[in-house]
Design brief:
single chain, elongated, Huntingtin_fam, Htt_N_HEAT_rpt-1, Huntingtin
């Protein structure tokens, strides 16, 4: 009996007895199916047989991997690993598609976890071509959003996402749209106010990884944080859930990445700082709430560098009012209008009232100072150019007489010699050089005076 026949008989037995047989009875058949699929997948000449058999084998093995019995799940996981690893060399793209098609909101959490943990493994599954990887991202992330919203086993789903979402984002995040990422974040945040700490930590980690691949998502998350926590609330689950989100975001991500894109400025940092201080000073009896807020504040202070540190240590701190927070930047990826306006309008001096469209430059100015920027430029029509036909050229301009210039120069030299003879000691070399310099500057000044007459 060849490998293909063994795999077909093992699959037929598993389908017929998957609900009735015990774990030890399924172990032999599942092991045989896994080994045979691994052998077929590693052979290039068996591609057609492997592909046909895989469509029927994957659902059966996933059923075993999601069984209520831990012994049966162990058998199914081992056989599924053999089948996937066997086709890694020649059929990784096809295996990835089949596993993604098995992810559905009607399946149980263990089924979904078994599928998620075996997709996007390595880089060999990538198939070059327009729209092929995009189609996978377009299918997978809306499914995940729907699963998170509708599942009744949120703890298992969050655990599966916490361990697999970083790998999925590294592979598919650049092929997703902002709306798909935003919908997944909204689905996760809808469960953040739970009383289960494991779910809160898992959701916080997932949101932090989403923000690392979509920086503008931070503005939406911070808006939700302030909507839930200000005006102040006394619900411990709400406080711990949202402060856990903030802590995870700044634990995993560097603040410089957000500040460079103008998504998290000093004002946002100070508002979070004052929010933490308020809830720490609040006279609450739940020490778990205070511990969560203190942990969040510790992370914020550990990330304080550069302008954030200077803002905290400033002797004249910036006034912060959480009641006046209207900073809703939104989830966007369009070019800001300020990047276009700043290249067209120079800034006004600080003493003058500034227009709303004017922006200030940062860094050293080149090709002139700020005074040159504020000097109004003149057009060619504003310049007074004198031509032979212009009225200014018709008036006679007095040309300086050379004899008069020589006479004036001699008189000045005579006055200089009379004053110089009164000095006791004079260095002749220094005197000669000084005379030359004096004559040069005097002649230039006299000539310029004559021209302006």
């Amino acid at each position: 009996m060849n490998v293909l026949e063994k795999a077909e008989k093992a699959l037929e037995y598993l389908k017929a007895n998957e609900n009735s047989a015990k774990g030890h009875e399924l172990q032999a058949a599942a092991g045989t199916l896994g080994r045979c699929l691994g052998a077929l997948g590693s052979r290039a000449n068996c591609a057609r047989h492997y592909a046909n058999l895989l469509h029927s084998a994957i659902p059966t093995l996933l059923f075993l991997a999601s069984n209520d019995s831990a012994e049966v799940r162990l058998v199914g996981d081992e056989a599924l690993n053999r089948a996937v690893v066997g086709g890694f060399a020649f059929h990784s793209y096809k295996t990835n598609i089949i596993l993604q098609n098995q992810i559905d909101h009607t399946r149980n959490a263990r089924w979904i976890r078994a599928s998620l943990s075996r997709i996007c493994l390595g880089e060999c599954w990538l198939r070059p071509g327009v729209g092929k990887i995009r189609s996978q991202a377009q299918t997978l992330f809306p499914k995940l959003s729907q699963i998170v919203r509708n599942t009744k086993e949120i703890q298992l789903i969050v655990e599966a996402l916490e361990s697999n979402l970083p790998r999925l984002l590294n592979a598919l995040a650049e092929y997703t749209t902002d709306e798909e990422i935003s919908e997944l974040s909204k689905a996760l945040l809808s469960h953040v106010e739970t009383t289960d700490p494991a779910i809160r930590r898992g959701i916080s980690t997932c949101i932090a990884h989403l923000c690392s691949h979509r920086e503008p998502l931070l503005t939406n998350v911070l808006s939700e944080v302030f909507d839930k926590l200000w005006p102040p609330t006394s619900e411990g689950a709400v406080i711990m859930g949202w402060f856990c989100i903030v802590k995870a975001i700044f634990q995993i991500n560097d603040t410089s990445k957000f500040s460079e894109n103008d998504l998290f400025n000093v004002q946002d940092y100070l508002e979070l700082y004052h929010l933490c201080i308020y809830y720490i000073e609040d006279s609450t009896t739940d020490h778990n709430v205070q511990n969560c807020v203190i942990e969040c504040l510790t992370v914020l202070l550990s990330r304080a560098s550069g302008e954030y540190r200077r803002a905290l240590l400033d002797h004249h701190p910036t006034a912060v009012s959480l009641d006046d927070r209207f900073n809703r930047k939104g989830h966007r990826r369009n070019i800001s209008s300020t990047s276009v306006i700043s290249s067209r309008f120079p800034p006004s001096p600080p003493s003058e009232p500034r227009d709303a469209l004017e922006l200030s430059f940062t860094g050293a100015l080149q090709l002139g100072s700020i005074l040159h920027l504020n000097t109004p430029s003149l057009s060619v029509e504003d310049l007074t150019i004198q031509t032979p036909d212009s009225p200014a050229s018709e008036t006679e301009i007095e040309i300086p007489n050379t004899e008069q210039l020589s006479k004036d120069l001699s008189e000045k030299l005579q006055e200089y010699e009379e004053c110089d003879s009164k000095e006791d000691v004079v260095d002749t070399a220094h005197l000669d050089s000084f005379k030359v310099k004096y004559l040069y500057f005097f002649f230039i000044a006299l000539w310029s005076d004559c021209l302006t007459m």
